[in-house]
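Translate structure to sequence.
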């Protein structure tokens, strides 16, 4: 497994304990540095298939193969229904060039598949739809915490589990809390570039006592079962993995 940057998360630590293989980290700095293209390039000669996810990995892997003349096969998974690049003509042109260099493109939901095909207008044979999978038993068997571990037993707890990025829009959720009764509290699980900004917003709105920022966790099933309502405040989603997990509780 090759990571663009070193994360030091609980998930990565647990993965290292169970993974039958190695994890490589390319940088401690920005994942948007084009120098990563040249750092990825040597790995292309060591494997027959590269499966990669998300932007900017999408660009860096394809460009690394392009300049190395490697014969490695590329498989990319598309997770989202939309992104900012698709509305910019220059990026739309560049996207078509990049995706056309990929051997197989996996989409995770109907809308993801439909929107990407419309955006790219590439040969249908490049696409394969494979929906997200969830270990149902793992989530169904999780035991909730006592509410007073976080707030009081009489509180009504909301939770959002997602990275702190523009797409996930924790800001709107935080702002909405000021219009709700005081006994409604919020757990925010995850990390990301906008977490400090979100904490500052909670402080400015004097909501510190009603919001807990839990960071990255490896006990998300228990946290979901502890809460009363799970909120997804995203501006856009593909087939959200969070919603997949929640569906397990209703079946």
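Result:
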């Amino acid at each position: 497994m090759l990571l663009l940057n070193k994360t030091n998360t609980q998930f990565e630590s647990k993965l290292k304990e169970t993974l039958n293989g190695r994890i490589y980290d390319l940088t401690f700095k920005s994942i948007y540095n084009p120098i990563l293209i040249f750092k990825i390039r040597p790995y292309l000669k060591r494997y027959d298939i590269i499966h990669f996810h998300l932007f900017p990995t999408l660009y860096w892997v394809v460009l690394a193969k392009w300049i190395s003349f490697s014969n490695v096969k590329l498989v990319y998974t598309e997770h989202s229904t939309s992104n900012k690049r698709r509305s910019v003509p220059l990026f739309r042109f560049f996207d078509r060039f990049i995706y056309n260099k990929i051997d197989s493109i996996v989409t995770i939901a109907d809308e993801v598949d439909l929107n990407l095909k419309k955006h790219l207008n590439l040969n249908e044979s490049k696409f394969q739809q494979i929906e997200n999978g969830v270990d149902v038993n793992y989530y169904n068997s999780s035991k909730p915490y006592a509410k007073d571990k976080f707030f009081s037993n009489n509180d009504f707890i909301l939770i959002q589990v997602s990275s702190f990025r523009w797409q996930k829009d924790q800001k709107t959720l935080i702002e909405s809390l000021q219009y709700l009764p005081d006994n409604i509290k919020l757990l925010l699980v995850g990390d990301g570039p906008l977490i400090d900004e979100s904490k500052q917003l909670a402080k400015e709105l004097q909501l510190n006592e009603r919001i807990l920022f839990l960071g990255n966790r490896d006990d998300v099933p228990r946290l979901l079962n502890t809460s009363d309502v799970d909120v997804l405040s995203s501006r856009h989603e593909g087939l959200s993995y969070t919603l997949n997990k929640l569906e397990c509780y209703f079946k």
